Amino acid sequence: MLFEDTPLLEKAQAEHDTFAGILRENGVEILYQEDMFAQAMKNESERSAFVEEFLDRSAIPSIGLRDRLAEYYNGLPLDEFVERVYTGVLKSEFDGGDSLGAVTYLDDLFLVNPLPNSYFTRDSSINIADDVILSHMGKPYRQREPLLMKYIHRAADEYRDNPTQDFCSMELPYGIEGGDVLILSDKVVCIGCTERTQPGAIEFVAANLFKKGFEAVYAFEMERGRNAMHLDGMLTMVDRDAFLFNPFLSGNVNVYKLTPASDGVRMQPVGSDWSKVLADALGESSVRLIPVGNGDEIQGFWEMWNLGGNVLTLAPGLVVCYDRNKITLDLLDKAGIEVRTFEGAELSRGRGGARCMSMPIIREAL
Fold first, then answer.
1. What is d(CA 251, CA 238) in angstroms, rounded to the nearest whole number?
2. Which are the catalytic amino acids?
3. pLDDT, tens digit, 9 for 90 and up, residues 198-254
4. How many beta carbons lie within 10 A of that of residue 65, not counting itself?
């Protein structure tokens, strides 16, 4: 299920609570996805529609079993329903009746797989320009997560009276994930072209962003693999002119600038010098690039793998991140970046950091 190891649940929960506490101490109002999903599911028609879509994406092995599971989910009390969406349904605890799907594939533990990666809320949707990009997840285990966000964005308390527009389309045959989207300003966005986010989705989203007043989208062509899973593990904005970046990719990643055109989107290559590209994107003469792990071939690789570049910027020059990446923390301090840290020994086993575990709904103007 994309984890390197199974986290110790109680410890992971305590680490996440500490993370949330740091956000609150710095003036952030926190909304939990689970609570917002429960709000959306109070509406019976929304719940019924969700169940149909959810099971369609759950690889249920037979029609008869799918029908029994739909009846089961729709009959649960709200709290238990929400819990079962996240934790799945074990084969050993469900009576599938005389359905062939219930008695075959005996090596499967689950009839409905859980959603253990959903604590990385950055990936399943991207709030931008008062609307949202609902993700198309690249890995089968994660393809149901955006469905929760779809119903949150049209039926949760925050959105019920003013549902948000999806800048993408869940019918689009191209993938896109939130970890690949960096919003530099109200005019410029960077998107990673990766294993999880494909060129067709970048072009489609860019065309819609241009209609909302954005002026440029920079596409970073990354390695297609787990070492460069998302752009926000390789590049993160930490101040008005400063970025954490992966020094092992420097000079090896082509960047393309997309701008509005009369027939849709114009594309031009802008090279592989990240310093020059980012300065151009921000309209600055130069930017500061802080290398995660300082480029050390042993410790630097370890810090990249342990999400040293995946920090959450709360304000220009103020970030929150794991306490485990000591070289990078020292470099941030020397660059004048204020840092709030928390332990992430268990949370990091899912291969995500503070930025991955958050999705800003409302950003104050700078």
1. 21
2. 356
3. 999 999 999 999 999 999 999 999 877 666 678 998 999 999 999 999 988 766 789
4. 22
